[in-house]
């Protein structure tokens, strides 16, 4: 396994736990590079739909080389539990086998250009489909990728900054790092990107220009970035972590502020830029290729989870209620809505939970 990717289209609604459903998306529309149909995992819509029928976020998961969407779905551990508790569907895009090794195209001008006709455009097309299908919140679309999936994750951040609110890249390289190579697989003759040669020789200004040139003229909000890498990665040099941090700190306009050791777990180091809300790195001491996913830390960074307030679900409630309606001495069950613009229902929460602000349109009993 060399390279992987997934897309989360999140919702802020949490309900009692129950199994989700998997479907295959056979025709999502824009697909210039003929990507195969990806699996899509979604919690039961009736339980997770908000009263205004909008899903709150759409994550994608991006698989590594040698992988596929369905294979990656089996490797993301209990992310599916979070998806079910928090109520977001997940797309697992699958790359085109033509390149060999089932790697993502992270090298061609097509994929490195906004609407350039490559893999990045096909993935952005899947997001459009999912937003429509699940009535998602277009401001809360996230992608998590590993290896090749992390590389295309960086590419998506540069080519579709208007589509993604956040990207988590596990063992990746900066966007456009593979430019000039003839492919982006482990057998590509030019390995100067993954082996760290470009990371060592390119300046921060070069990385920033490469990222900005993928969608020239874009001036809107850009995705927050979480970049994880093991110091002992034998396939994709750890030097690429520094290069990614240089690229995105320049693009996002944040500078290094501090390192926090043993965060989020032993032997991991949180490298904080600015106030830590736009850009962080996780350097894993002695870690190899694709360190274990850290879903609490990742979903918190995305703003989908507040573990301090214990919003990850788990304890069951009566479920199914959208939490609106009652007045007077009312009480909204845990995970129900208790506030937000236009909300007219009960704002008191059942004992054991409190009303937590999620976004201007949604507060929830957690
Ligand atoms: C997922 O697994 C991790 C590691 O075992 C655990 O700490 C976390 O609580 C689990 N989360 C959920 C929602 O099951
Ligand atoms: C691509 O090749 C050109 C010409 O040699 C070089 O200037 C540029 O830095 C290269 N870009 C990358 C990302 O390798
Ligand atoms: C990186 O790969 C290139 C071939 O693409 C090779 O010439 C170079 O020696 C390698 N460098 C390292 C540090 O492995
Ligand atoms: C923070 O961690 C990075 C990555 O290990 C390291 O390069 C840098 O020197 C550290 N900075 C400080 C101030 O500790
Ligand atoms: C998480 O919840 C705690 C406790 O309610 C609160 O103090 C904190 O501000 C919340 N953090 C975020 C990022 O919302
Ligand atoms: C979250 O709440 C559940 C149920 O109330 C409890 O069992 C669990 O220990 C709590 N987890 C944390 C991290 O506080």
From TrEMBL:
SUPFAM superfamilies per the UniProt record, alphabetical: alpha/beta-Hydrolases (SSF53474)
GO BP: carbohydrate metabolic process
Transmembrane segments: none
UniProt xrefs under Pfam families: CBM_1 (PF00734), Esterase_PHB (PF10503)
One GO CC term, this protein: extracellular region
Annotated ranges, domain CBM1: 330-366
Keywords: Hydrolase, Serine esterase, Signal
One function term, GO molecular function aspect: cellulose binding
Signal peptide: 1-19
Name of this protein: Alpha/Beta hydrolase protein
Phylogenetic placement of the source organism: Eukaryota, Fungi, Dikarya, Basidiomycota, Agaricomycotina
